[in-house]
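To: structure desk
From: M.T.
Subject: fold request, one chain
Message: Could you run this one when you get a chance? Sequence is below, nothing fancy, just the single chain.
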Amino acid sequence: TQSTWEVNHKQVKRREHSHDEQITVLAADMNSSYQRKIVSMYRDSVSKNKEFKDVAKSLKADLDKRFQKLWHVVIIKGQYWAYYSHEPKYSFVFREGANIVLVWKTPIL
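Reply: Done. Structure tokens follow.
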């Protein structure tokens, strides 16, 4: 089965725990251990890539390799709305500075 999340960051009032001062969790259907690993992988990708299109590509490849396929990564600056389906317990949306990062996993069909 899949879970479905509708996310509009302007409507998300509840703040989850922060992994540190720069990360704000906007929505999560994922255990905190995975969240910390993904944030670490994201930051590693940011440090290795100059453009965010490459950060997204690199993070997706790393997620597919480390946690098995099929991951999706979207990095956004500014306002957004998203509606997507994902495997239960595999969705995470967080903000670091001006960037909002959506990460979710779907089953391989």
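Reply (cont.): The two ends are 12 Å apart (CA to CA). Let me know if you need anything else for the meeting.
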